[in-house]
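FW: tagging you since you asked about this chain on Friday. Here's the raw sequence from the shared folder, copied in full. Didn't touch anything.
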Amino acid sequence: MDYSAQLAMALPELVLTGGALILMLVAAWGGQASTRAVSWTSIAVLGGAAIALIGPASSGGEAFYGLYRADAFGAFAKLLIYIAAAVAIVIAPRFFEQTSGDDLRPEYPVLILLSAVGMGMMVSSGDLLSLYVGLELQSLAAYVLASFMRQDARSAEAGLKYFVLGALASGILLYGVSLVYGFTGTTLYTGIAAAYAGGTSTGLLFGLVFVFAGLAFKISAVPFHMWTPDVYEGAPTPVTAFFASAPKVAAIGLAIRVAIEAMGPATSDWRQIVIFASLASIVLGAVAAIGQTNIKRLLAYSSINNIGFALIGLAAGTQQGVAAVLMYMTIYVAMTLGSFLVVLQMRGADGQPVETVASLSGMSSTRPGLALALAMFMFSLAGIPPLFGFYAKFAVFEAAVSAGLFPLAVVGIAASVIGAYYYLRVIKTMYFDDPAPAFAPAGSMVESGLIGLTAAFISPLGYLAIPLLGGWSLNAARALF
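HL: got it, structure written out here
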């Protein structure tokens, strides 16, 4: 294939890389004064990368000798990643100005762009080596972002914990990659699938287990979830919103591609791992969230819980299951970003962030619009109809039943009742408890507009998008089979 045609398939990553490098130089020469220009230009770069998905980047096939896949599945995941990354950039300046007393530094949007490059490589990888390079590029930027507030001890602790545990997970993943390579003689997904089709040896089975263990860390699935609550609580809230959305989409996309393309013939083997991780994440995420007093920690366990539901669709191992996961992640990103946008509005009279669940007491009378939005996000995360979050859970359960995994669907539905408790506790605090000191007035039309937009999407109005989202997700899933 012509080299220029292969570069055209990777155009979104090239746009992001070029934009990040240029903006890094602008930040170096312009200093603090360039932050606003760098931030808005970064959003434009993300928009350019999204436009670049049209054409060969979403339908070109294999490039660079199988290392990279340009297909509809990758394009679907990348668009979600770019949207979440853009929101994380938009909401950051006001947070840093009010919280640290110092304006946002221009390195922040550059790190987001570099992380997006890595995530794009993750969802488009066709080889275990490109998988690892993309994953590490995303992770290295994430470690810095987690500890971005250098004067905040919690932020520094979050970055250090994320780095140490991330290094451990990378080692586990690399060990699995080395086992798979040793017993198949290749790192290409196509070659690995051919080896698994010939019979799963003990070595291949161990390689499969270690690879999925490494990937489980990246999606914060049980039992590799231990970093999530501390990092979510300690990292700056815009960074936490980013961690809870874009990297989750990338990691789930990567797990799907590895499971279906590289290890599809061994579905019966990895399905057991995915089912265990799914049910354990649903139960632990629900139970552990009950006693949380910090809203960011509660949302961390909520993300663990929701990843468990997404894994139910992956366990099906079918086109319908993959399409259901993509649909679930689309709705999950909207619910999560909306929830963290509300958290950004939680500020005391002095303008400093307030993160306790108790501070939400009586918010229905002091900030009725904000209380309504958060109630919608909580009900939707719990999967209560008629909100759009109900359809997300319905889609993965339907896929599991269609694949013959009826017991998994039954247990998942039963476990979702546990999770509803802590979501309802938040709503009860807002609407029925004695009012706490009122939050400071909303000072950002951008944040308020984004809250309204995400609330509208997860409302019953979101059902109007089902034909479009359903067809697009099914087309993306079909690209893997």
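FW: Residues 153-184 form the longest helix (32 residues).
HL: agreed, and The first strand starts at residue 61 and ends at 63.
FW: great, closing this out.
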